[in-house]
Description:
The complex is a heterotetramer, with 2 copies of chain A (152 residues) and 2 copies of chain C (85 residues). Chain A is an alpha+beta fold and 152 residues long. Helices cover 37% and strands 34% of the residues of chain A. Chain A has a single domain (4-149), classed as Molybdopterin biosynthesis MoaE subunit (Aldehyde Oxidoreductase, domain 3). In chain A, a hairpin with a 4-residue loop joins strand 7 (121-127) and strand 8 (132-134). Chain C contains 3 helices and 5 strands; from the N terminus they run βαβααβββ.
Amino acid sequence: xxxxxxxRVDTADIDIGGELARLEALGGGGVASFTGVVRGGGGLTALxxxxxxxxxxxxxxxxxxxxxxxxxxxGVTAIHRHGRLVPGDRIVLVAAASPxxxxxxxxxxxxxxxxKTRAPFWKKEHFADGASHWVEARAAxxxxxxxxxxxx
Amino acid sequence: xxxxxxxRVDTADIDIGGELARLEALGGGGVASFTGVVRGGGGLTALxxxxxxxxxxxxxxxxxxxxxxxxxxxGVTAIHRHGRLVPGDRIVLVAAASPxxxxxxxxxxxxxxxxKTRAPFWKKEHFADGASHWVEARAAxxxxxxxxxxxx
Amino acid sequence: xxxxxxxxxxxxxxxGLSAETVTPPPEVGTIADLVGWLASRGAGHAEAFADRxxxxxxxxxxxxxxxxxxxxxxxxxxxxxxTGG
Amino acid sequence: xxxxxxxxxxxxxxxGLSAETVTPPPEVGTIADLVGWLASRGAGHAEAFADRxxxxxxxxxxxxxxxxxxxxxxxxxxxxxxTGG
Lengths: 152, 152, 85, 85
């Protein structure tokens, strides 16, 4: 099964309905997705995402290819935003189309675990009191991504 | 965590973008979804879905409540269409919002397994040569749904 | 006491009705009794219930086994195994 | 041979540059050597690389370990551990 990849990193908002409609149109019968949204709370006013433009797309494409090698997928979409985002903004969409619902859902879980933990992004949090700091890598996220490399 | 339920069975198309935006707005940070689309092939021209109007919504609501009891969810959406559908039409959407991406994805898998196997629908397939038949219950699907009742 | 019977899918098609109101005799005590009694009402009914192992039932909005008593039921649905969505 | 060095996140901020082109001396053979050499270029650089355990690198589009040779590299990125998206 050769998969249709749609991988993008940009500053624009993500058109969830349009992106999922593209995957539906592949005819597999099932499309799973995960959308991440910037959470507020704790006085957070903005999130600033930085990435390495030279390697992000290459790595995202590689992980999408790994997903397509592991599960029978007709299409994979992975879109990540960078730049300044505020609570409520979409930050990431991953989605997969497959004739098998478990495959679509597991591939989506695999992709989002990788994106949330391994993708080459750095996040700076800005708070209402003027403070800001770079988010540290979290061990729990690394473990979630590590589960996948232990499988198959 | 009290969850926002949005459960519907009707003949209208499903506005995926709008439905997911409602779950995003709950502020959990993550929204997982699964969309089922009528597959063509084998000369299939239409699918006719019949349901028991008196019990479908009650059962869908009950399964959504089970999901919300098992995972920390802010919202659950389950929309199923009935009536006459053609290949390419959306047939079902399930989605869940949660602060935890694994919870959102697992709840979505639980809901779609139930909907695809246990929900009180009957499907009649119509073919290009004029033939039509009622789809038989599939053992593989029952097993997928049974996995969940063995857990927790 | 009259009971509304709802038919779905292949059972509905074989009988040619989506619903009918019946008043079974007092010895019809369970879902299985009801199906047996309905099967005698005509050729379509007999065909619809020929394979008893493939008949499922709900009383009101609850699924019911063949040995579930029907006493007091106002609405009973009879249908093939559900195939899901 | 000049190398383009890219800095990201806190390392970029400490140095005050997102990129610079440098020509390290021949004894700078690995990523670790390069970081040590860069750290001596100024106060910002020293601060950026004070905690070596938190410096990550990529040569071109490939992540690189501290002992990865940099011979032939045209572009090297230095950054804190990625936090994911």
